[in-house]
Amino acid sequence: AALALAGAAFPAMAAKPLVMGFSQVGAESEWRTANTVSVKDAAKKAGVNLKFADAQQRQENQVKAIRSFIAQKVDVIAFSPVVESGWDTVLREAKAANIPVILTDRDVNVADKSLYVTLIGSDFVEEGRRAGRWLNEYAKKQPGKTFNIVELQGTVGSAPAIDRKTGFDEVTKGNAQLKLLRTQTAEFTRAKGKEVMEAFLKAHGKNINVLYAHNDDMAIGAIQAIEEAGLKPGKDIVIVSVDGVRGAFEAMIQGKLNVTVECNPLLGPLLMQTAKDVKAGKQVPKRLVVEERVFPAEVALKEFPNRKY
Ligand code: AHR
């Protein structure tokens, strides 16, 4: 209270708000929209002056935004890197300018880990494992049957696309009932999910038994393609996806999606707290992992009212 009074009497003594430059991947999915809302709301609540830049899924836009944050001498830079590689130079520039960098959501592949303070977000490999384990259990209930899988991957070179594939492959590779027919990127969007699924259906038609989509938006796009091909999503083709957004719950309630593995986008409050801790010189863990669950269609109706995004 004394400080606040002093601040009112002598404005120069009032605590200056922390200035954060945040470079967001884009607006490619329902997940991303929820993540952006979370970051903006949390900044407002925490009194952080947020400079927000949307990179429209392009790394060069993120590099430009980071350079502009450095030029503006922000207190902290936070960003969700669209792809893993190619960050060494710009992160060295931030380090030379003494501006701490916090990664949110996605990881970078840099030799010098001191180029960022911490990574806040999900364990994408574990998400892929959870999707694969669900499918292993599903297949086990129909012994002797082979399941032909098509996979819609996320953005090429992005941490969630690489890790969700790694985790899924790791737990399913020994399962003789599962066979991967096709795998292709659909860039985490509904439009591409529909387009690539149409191509898969044209090539393989009724031979496809399972779709593994690296996010719900691609699964939702693919559901449209499956219906337009005269097949029943969730029945003729079993669908496993990742994120747990409202659209996925709606699809599960309608019987069109079989399971979604949660990926939590509500990273804003933890990001703001971490930025304040870093600014105050506190030690923060190199990795902050958020808690997540698996939601099969059977629980969708009950869980829907509790969903926050
Ligand atoms: O990085 C997280 C992923 O990015 C989400 O799973 C996906 O929906 C988003 O586009």
Q: Write the element-wise H/E pattern from the N-terminal end onward.
A: HEHEHEHEEHEHEHEHEHEHEEH
Heteromolecules bound: alpha-L-arabinofuranose
Q: Which spans have pLDDT < 50 for at least 5 consecutive residues?
A: 1-7
Radius of gyration, whole Å: 21 Å
Q: Percent helix among the residues?
A: 40-55%
List how many beta strands DSSP finds: 12
The chain-level mean pLDDT equals: 95
SS content category: alpha/beta
| Proportion of residues in β-strands | 15-25%
Largest sheet: 6 strands, parallel
Number of helices: 11
So what's the overall shape?
elongated
Spatial separation of the terminal alpha carbons: 37 Å
Main sheet: strand order: 2-1-3-4-5-11
Walk me through the structure.
By secondary structure, the chain is an alpha/beta fold. Helices cover 42% and strands 19% of the residues. It is built from eleven helices and twelve strands. The strands form two sheets. A six-stranded parallel beta sheet has the order 2-1-3-4-5-11, with helices on both faces. The protein has a six-stranded mixed beta sheet with strand order 7-6-8-9-10-12, with helices on both faces. Helix 2 crosses helix 10 and helix 7 (190-204) crosses helix 8 (216-228). The longest helix has 17 residues, at 30-46. The chain is elongated, with a radius of gyration of 21 Å. The two termini are 37 Å apart. The protein binds alpha-L-arabinofuranose.
